[in-house]
Write a structure and sequence with these properties.
CATH class of the largest domain: Mainly Alpha
Largest sheet: 3 strands, antiparallel
Structural class: mainly alpha
CATH architecture of the largest domain: Alpha Horseshoe
Helix content: 55-70%
Strand content: under 5%
Shape: globular
Radius of gyration: 26 Å
């Protein structure tokens, strides 16, 4: 085995045995598994959490899933970091030890104890939230103690203090809810109205956490009628859209906000409410701020809102909508391209001005590249429909007038 890997941009080499065999990155918390192999804790925990039961290097079955901290190796790595400080290497901090089951059980018992002082309950909840944020292992351990079943009653406890309810909510949204929990919560109008009111709370963290729980509930409920009932609550779209308007210095707000808005907009009957709340303007204004996955979700939401007349009007009225959608084609991902093409098709089908704007923004070149690319068939069919629609808007000297792109056989795919 090699003693080192390729040089980093820093101009130095990381010793081979300091790298995690899974991530190939410098280990920050080396742990040894039952086969004797050492991995970075985060990498091996992710490996096991996805259902793997073997050692990644040896492929031998793991006889148990206890990860023993390799303190000697961690100290060697820290010494190496200090020795190479001149090259910009920062010393890795000493990792926190994972939580144990008895501690988690004790903290949860204190959190839900009505006889315990409020401050003790708050401290227990905050300690649990800190543990949950430390590692995937801690989150799994806390989840195994039926944490959602314990926290939900506190969040909606009429007697508990607001601070206690808000702290419980902040911890709750770190864990997925079961389908039965989502359906039960979504069916309770009083609880949904309470969460909707929290979307206007003075604390931005409370607002974001409320939006996160609303998204969990809507996405986790399979009944169309119940989902429609939630999305039809007065003020729910307004609250979510307001979260998306906040500065990008709070990236979690963008992530939570777009997930919640997308989940709500999947309900056809209430999309007009999203438009009335100003979602089209916010989506266009913030499109460039989203990370890849969230950008895909934002574009999917744009396409959904382009399926209602009010949405078409709102997006068409924003000067940046069409140029931005054209620019996105083939830039972010196949999914993003498909959603952008679908939104453009909807806009151009209803507005000649949008057709002219799209052509002026260079959509013809983008679409011709798209139909020849390895993008999804659905995206290509949308591009073909859009090319056919725009033929009368093509400049006389445009390559688009070529019979090679006549799109004579177009398959119409319903939105």
């Amino acid at each position: 085995m090699r003693g080192s890997l390729e040089p980093l941009d820093l101009g130095i080499q990381i010793p081979y045995h300091f790298r995690c065999p899974i991530s190939l990155e410098l280990m920050r918390d080396p742990v040894t598994v039952s086969t004797g192999q050492t991995y970075d804790r985060g990498s091996i925990e992710s490996w096991v959490s996805t259902g793997n039961t073997t050692c990644p290097v040896t492929r031998a079955n793991l006889t148990d899933f206890t990860f023993i901290p390799n303190h000697t190796l961690r100290r060697l790595i820290q010494d190496w970091c200090v020795a190479n400080r001149a090259f910009g290497v920062e010393r890795i901090p000493t990792p926190k030890q994972p939580a144990d089951s008895s501690l988690v059980r004790s903290l949860l018992n204190q959190s839900c104890s009505h006889s315990a002082p409020t401050q003790l309950r708050l401290n227990s909840l905050r300690r649990l939230r800190s543990l949950a944020r430390d590692s995937e292992y801690n989150r799994s351990l806390i989840a195994s103690h039926n944490v959602c079943h314990i926290l939900l009653p506190i969040v909606f406890d009429h007697i508990a203090s607001d601070e206690l309810k808000h702290e419980s909510l902040a911890l709750l949204v770190l864990f997925p809810l079961s389908e039965s929990e989502c359906t039960s919560l979504a069916s309770d109008s009083d609880k949904i109205n309470y969460l909707t009111r929290l979307l206007s709370h003075s604390s931005f963290d409370v607002r974001v956490n409320s939006a996160a729980l609303i998204e969990f509930v809507v996405a986790g409920t399979h009944s169309p009628e119940i989902r429609a009932q939630v999305s039809n609550v007065d003020g729910i779209y307004d609250g979510v859209v307001e979260i998306l308007k906040n500065p990008i210095s709070y990236p979690r707000a963008l992530k939570v906000g777009i997930k919640a808005l997308f989940a709500l907009c999947l309900v056809k009957q209430t999309r007009h409410r999203a438009v009335a709340a100003g979602a089209p303007v916010v989506l266009v204004d913030r499109l460039a701020d989203f990370e890849k996955c969230d950008a895909e979700r934002a574009l999917a939401t744009v396409e959904l809102l382009c399926r209602v007349p009010a949405g078409i009007t709102a997006f068409a009225g924003h000067a940046l909508t069409v140029p931005m959608l054209v620019k996105i084609i083939l830039k972010i991902s196949d999914r993003a391209t498909e959603y952008a093409a679908g939104a453009l098709l909807a806009l151009c089908s209803e507005s000649e001005r949008c057709q002219r704007e799209a052509v002026a923004a260079g959509v013809l070149t983008q679409l011709l590249l798209l139909v020849q690319s390895d993008c999804t068939e659905r995206a290509k069919r949308k591009a073909q429909l859009l090319l056919k629609l725009l033929r009368d808007s093509w400049p006389q000297d445009s390559i688009g007038n070529s019979d090679d792109f006549a799109c004579s056989q177009v398959v119409v795919v319903p939105f």
